[in-house]
Amino acid sequence: MAVGFLGPPLQDFGAVPLRLLGWPPQNPQTRGFVPGGVFLPPCRGGTRPALGAAGGLAGARQRPWGRARTFWGRSITFWGRASTRGAVPGVAADPGVPAPPRPTFTAWCNSHLRKAGTQIENIDEDFRDGLKLMLLLEVISGERLPKPERGKMRVHKINNVNKALDFIASKGVKLVSIGAEEIVDGNAKMTLGMIWTIILRFAIQDISVEETSAKEGLLLWCQRKTAPYKNVNVQNFHISWKDGLAFNALIHRHRPELIEYDKLRKDDPVTNLNNAFEVAEKYLDIPKMLDAEDIVNTARPDEKAIMTYVSSFYHAFSGAQKAETAANRICKVLAVNQENEHLMEDYEKLASDLLEWIRRTIPWLEDRSPQKTIQEMQQKLEDFRDYRRVHKPPKVQEKCQLEINFNTLQTKLRLSNRPAFMPSEGRMVADINNGWQHLEQAEKGYEEWLLNEIRRLERLDHLAEKFRQKASIHEAWTEGKEAMLKQKDYESATLSDIKALIRKHEAFESDLAAHQDRVEQIAAIAQELNELDYYDSPSVNARCQKICDQWDVLGSLTHSRREALEKTEKQLETIDELHLEYAKRAAPFNNWMESAMEDLQDMFIVHTIEEIEGLIAAHDQFKSTLPDADKEREAILGIQREAQRIADFNSIKLGGNNPYTSVTPQIINSKWERVQQLVPKRDHALLDEQSKQQSNEHLRRQFASQANIVGPWIQTKMEEIGRISIEMNGTLEDQLNHLKQYEQSIVDYKPNIDLLEQQHQLIQEALIFDNKHTNYTMEHIRVGWEQLLTTIARTINEVENQILTRDAKGISQEQMQEFRASFNHFDKDHGGALGPEEFKACLISLGYDVENDRQKRTGSTDADDFRALLISAGCSLVTLSALFSLLFPPPPVPFWSSSHRCEPPGLGEGAGGHKETPPEPKTGAGLSLQPGDSVVGGGGAP
Asked: 191 with 106, same domain?
């Protein structure tokens, strides 16, 4: 048997799956495995025990002399952090691990030793002599052990302990690594391991539920017993019991009177645990083996301790359950006998009552005494229905229940091996069925007789009622019909009214024809009642005669009214045709007048003289159509007068307005007068607007005339300034004087701009928004004027800077001419500035070596072409002054840029009227470039 296992050898249980042992090894490379999932922990020497022929372990361990032991590392142990969480009975214990709580095992031992009148105090010491150990085994096994030795010597103690160990081994348990010497020496771990082995063998191994192992069987038993309880979910023997509810649920399931489970709280585990321990000790004779504080304050309570304590509940309740089962069986037999006797008595009573009711009911159903009136027969029928509805259903249920009870009783007697039940004479099921069949036959005959009698009497009542209903309906229909046929409402009706009256009269004639059948039916029913000698025939005959006489009168009046309606219809058709003609012509004319009034009152918005002249022409054309419109008006009014003349001649009362139109002659005349009033008002409004547009047109032409002069003048001056700035004739001073003369001529032109502003103000006040006579707007003129002033000022400033540069560097007039000629040559667009490529070409044409010059001035060898410098600096244009600054660099001065155009410093306030603040100064000699800067020259004074 392998070290580290508890209980019987492996061959007793077959291969032990790792899932039951609860030991997944940390490193499979250093652990031993065999097929089927059996775990073989390696021994210290590096060898593994061999498997026996039956699947066990042979030669697992050769125990050396003395205290030396071989432990298999972290093998499958039975307590501590590496304990076998699912140790099965028959697997031995490894003593080289921490011991479980002593109080639990001590309490368990004392719970059995007290039956022999003794107990232990210290589990490590009190079993050393083997006497109480042997006594414990005798109590829990119920068997006698060999007589112990009473000596006090060590050998006597060892012999007594060996007798106990031999007895344990005789029960199929091999105690590997546990010897008598360790117990006698007081080895706590060995002693506790031995006690746990005894608990597994004698307290837990015999627990089996549905062929499960001992531990699983005990767990399954706990789960089934605690399943109905809330907040209880037993899945193991450690944390599932921490809140104490599972212990209380076990007690309450078997002894509900001991615990008020509903009052327990899940958040008070200490109280729950102590309550269960105290109740178990007081009422169930189960000693307190656990400490509530230890369980609550431990993350994972000791599994072996809880299993030991729970097994005590299992054994305590299993004995009581057996006694209760036997008592229940006896009570069940007595209850079955009493129930059978009760069923027999019930059958006899129900059978007697049912047969007596059948004997009383059959004579009543066989009575066939006829009745004279339908009411009396209906009362008999109601009594019969009441019998069917109220009296018979309970008896049907009694009969069914009687048969059910009889069959149930016979079945129970047969299952109990008792003789069959025999009812008394005349109360057999067959007797009851015969009586019930006779009752059903009498009931069927009585029902047929009742229905036939009722049908016979109902026939007469039905005919009389049918006569009364048809007569009442006919009389209700004829009521007021004579007065309707005699009225002369057609004399004041219109054509549509008369046609409606004719259609209504035709509908009445159809209705009259339909009622002919009803009159004939009334006469036929009266004849049948007379033939059947109905008791109230005189009143029926009188009523029938009255109906026939009235019917003849209605026929005569109907014919007279039709003739009068048709005559009136012909007279109104002529008038209606005139009304229709009037409506057809009046509606378009009315719409024309309404449209004319809308047009005459419509507000017009025009912006040009052409638009107002178009409106005046359209208005004149409208006025030319008025004579024809007046003739149409007279023709329409003549139609209405003709219709009125015909109505007066035939004494026909026209019902007011024309039915085809709401446009009356009064409306036509009123709107015509309104049109006549609006025409001259429209004339005055159009003439006023024409005068206004003529004035606006004069303002447009006046502004356009001046703008068409000022605009080209500004463009011409801009071109002349550009030409002067690049001309080569004369000196810079001559060029400067020429530019200043241009500047003075520009300033002298300012009154023309002011005049144009005044004219623009008049246009704005007149709300004139466009001018087709010129492409120049005041905004264009203003922008051009500002650009002209800025350009002349900037050009003068550039020439002044060139003069300063020339004087400061001693440049001759010929050199200046050369520089300017080269600059003008590459300034293809005459914009006064060069791009990077043009600037580089200009420098090369002047013989200027940028790289050598920079090395010469700075001593640097890291030079680049000037185009790269311009691009890295973010410049796009270079002026002539900037060219001078590069060729003749001044001392370092601050640089600044404006719109990517390289300008010389010192520009100051330009013509634009604002002063730009230069950026922070850059270091360098001659030329300094930074990203975002412009290339500038040193055109200022040294």
From this structure: yes
Q: Are 25 and 164 part of one and the same domain?
A: yes
Which amino acid is located at 24 in the chain? P
407: in domain: no
Number of domains the chain is built from: 4
- Per DSSP, 144 falls in state P
Q: How confident is the model at residue 412 (pLDDT cuts 50, 70, 90)?
A: confident
* Residues 732, 815: Cα–Cα separation, whole Å: 12
Q: What is d(CA 45, CA 3) in angstroms, rounded to the nearest whole number?
A: 14
Last residue of a domain, one of 632, 663, 694: 663
* CATH code of the domain covering residue 557: 1.20.58.60
- pLDDT confidence of residue 93: 41
For the beta carbon of residue 400, count every other beta carbon within 10 angstroms.
Answer: 10
Q: Looking at 139, 169, 204, which one is the last position of a domain?
A: 204
**684 and 637 both lie in a single domain:** no
Place of tokens 């005789």: 170
DSSP assignment of 802-867: HHHHHHHHT--HHHHHHHHHHHHHH-TT-SSEE-HHHHHHHHHHTT--HHHHHHHHH--S----HH
- Residues 98-108 have pLDDT tens digits of 345 688 889 89
CATH number, residue 169: 1.10.418.10
Write out the two tokens for 736. 């400067």
Mean pLDDT to the nearest integer, 705-729: 84
Residues 873 and 743 in one domain: no
pLDDT digits (tens, 9 = 90+) for 901-922: 444 433 333 333 333 333 333 3
Terminal-to-terminal C-alpha distance of the chain: 113
CA 189 vs CA 88, 99, 368, 630: distances in Å: 19, 5, 105, 137
CA distance linking residue 359 with residue 395, whole number of Å: 13
Statement to judge: residues 895 and 787 lie in one domain: no
Mean pLDDT of the chain, nearest integer = 76
Lowest average pLDDT, out of 392-396, 494-498, 897-901, goes to 897-901
Does 792 lie in the same domain as 708?
yes
pLDDT of 151 reads 84
Residue 795 reports pLDDT greater than 50: yes
Domain region containing 628: 480-663
Q: Give rounded-to-5 percent helix, strand, coil for the chain.
A: 65, 0, 35
| pLDDT class of 824 with cuts at 50, 70, 90 | confident
Retrieve residue 737's tokens: 């004087």
Name which of 433, 427, 442 is nearest 361 in CA terms. 442
- 833 near 823, Cβ under 8 Å? no
* pLDDT confidence of residue 20: 30
Which residue reads 């010497």 in tokens? 181
Rg over alpha carbons for the chain, rounded to the nearest Å, is 67
- Taking the C-alpha atoms of residue 903 and residue 935, their distance in angstroms, rounded to an integer, is 7
